[in-house]
């Protein structure tokens, strides 16, 4: 059992752990204990055999006995789930000696510090496999090797017909659910203005609550003629299918940018520069994944960055629409050179259904 009771991006970045286990022990069963809203994403990974509601596991640790759990991996770590695994008598429980509050409930140990934020989250998670005999510095390369995504639900025709095969279909995921320092909405607005003269079809994605926030803060963005507003219209299954049908995504540090990378789409993440929240730790990984920062140190809650998460900070504001546009023009040029007759050619993920 792998425990990750947090957001979509956190859950997705545990899939490489599951994939590594499956390759070493093909007949093993891997369960992921997470929050219910992440279930469609978990069930889209061929590396994960079952979903467990993490809250139910905490309330009733005997669930772990019923599924015959032999190994418990807790990369965050979550203290309540660690206690549940101990109470259920899971034979092997891996903990990090640098996180003693969780490690006291474990009986196999590794030692890994997050100081400086220089280790990517995928690599940090894979470090939890070392006490099971996996090699130090385990690396996985391709999208298929990393995530094993196999979408289980087809894109509904009403959304599929929005995709324009003659243009570059670009998703602008505007917010982060308050979990990351975001790129300003005004910058997204400028980007849509710059793209008006180019062969790109733009889609705004996010939740219904985020749409209300955008409506209050930057209504002109929703009113643009060259954008299609899908905020609040896609459930998670349809969002996954739509990302796969599109060509690329631009977003701040948030789960959907990792989803785009995992599906082999062009993914461009705009990141803050603060320790442990910059691309060194959280950049999307995939064949066509990229990221950008302002390039100077910025520590949330100290001086430059505002406290908390969500609002833009000076280091995300400093990433200009012109810089992002430069990357998009390279994408469009690559598309034109790949398809001189105007037909649609885009990166294809080996992991896509």
Estimate the mean pLDDT confidence. Answer: 88
List the domain count as a whole number. 2
Contiguous uncertain segments of 5+ residues: 347-353
Q: How much helix is in the residues?
A: 25-40%
**Distance N terminus to C terminus?**
25 Å
CATH class membership of the largest domain: Alpha Beta
Spatial order of the strands in the main sheet?
A: 9-8-7-10-11-12
Number of strands: 12
Number of helical regions: 18
Percent in strands: 5-15%
Q: Return the CATH topology of the largest domain.
A: Rossmann fold
Order of helices and strands: EHHEHEHHEHEHEHHHEHEHHEHEHEHEHH
| Largest sheet geometry | 6 strands, parallel
The helix/strand class is alpha/beta
Task: Return the CATH architecture of the largest domain.
Answer: 3-Layer(aba) Sandwich
* CATH homologous superfamily identity of the largest domain: Glycogen Phosphorylase B
> Judging from the principal axes of the Cα atoms, what is the shape?
globular
Please state the CA-atom Rg, rounded to the nearest Å: 21 Å
Q: What descriptors fit this protein?
A:
353 residues; alpha/beta; Rossmann fold; 2 domains; 6-stranded parallel sheet; 36% helix; disordered C terminus
């Amino acid at each position: 059992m792998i425990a990750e009771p947090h957001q979509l991006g956190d859950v997705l970045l545990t899939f490489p752990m599951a994939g590594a286990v499956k390759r070493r022990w093909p007949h093993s069963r891997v369960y992921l204990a997470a929050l219910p809203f992440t279930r469609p994403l978990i069930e889209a990974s061929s590396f994960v055999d079952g979903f467990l509601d993490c809250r139910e596991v905490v309330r009733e640790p005997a669930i772990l006995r019923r599924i015959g759990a032999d190994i418990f991996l807790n990369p965050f770590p979550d203290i309540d789930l660690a206690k549940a695994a101990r109470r259920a008598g899971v034979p092997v429980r891996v903990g990090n000696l640098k996180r003693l509050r969780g490690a006291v409930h474990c009986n196999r140990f590794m030692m890994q510090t997050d100081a400086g934020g220089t280790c990517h989250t995928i690599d940090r998670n894979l470090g939890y496999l070392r006490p099971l005999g996996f090699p130090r510095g385990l690396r996985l390369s391709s999208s298929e090797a990393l995530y094993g995504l196999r979408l289980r639900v087809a894109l509904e025709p009403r959304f599929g017909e929005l995709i324009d095969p003659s243009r570059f279909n670009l998703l602008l995921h505007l917010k982060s659910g308050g979990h990351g320092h975001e790129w300003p909405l005004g910058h997204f607005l400028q980007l849509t203005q710059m793209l008006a003269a180019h062969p790109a079809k733009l889609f705004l994605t996010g939740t219904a609550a985020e749409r209300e926030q955008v409506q209050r803060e930057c209504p002109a963005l929703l009113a643009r003629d060259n954008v299609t507003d899908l905020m609040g219209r896609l459930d998670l299954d349809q969002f996954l299918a739509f990302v796969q049908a599109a060509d690329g995504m631009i977003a701040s540090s948030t789960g959907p940018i990792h989803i785009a990378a995992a599906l082999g789409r062009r993914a461009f993440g705009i990141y803050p520069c603060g320790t442990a929240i910059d691309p060194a730790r959280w950049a999307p990984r995939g064949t066509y994944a990229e990221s950008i920062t302002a390039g100077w140190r910025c520590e949330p809650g100290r001086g430059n960055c505002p406290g908390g998460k969500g609002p833009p900070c000076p280091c995300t504001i400093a990433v200009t629409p012109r810089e992002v546009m430069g990357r998009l023009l390279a994408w469009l040029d690559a598309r034109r050179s790949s398809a001189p007759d105007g037909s649609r050619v885009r990166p294809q993920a080996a992991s896509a259904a």
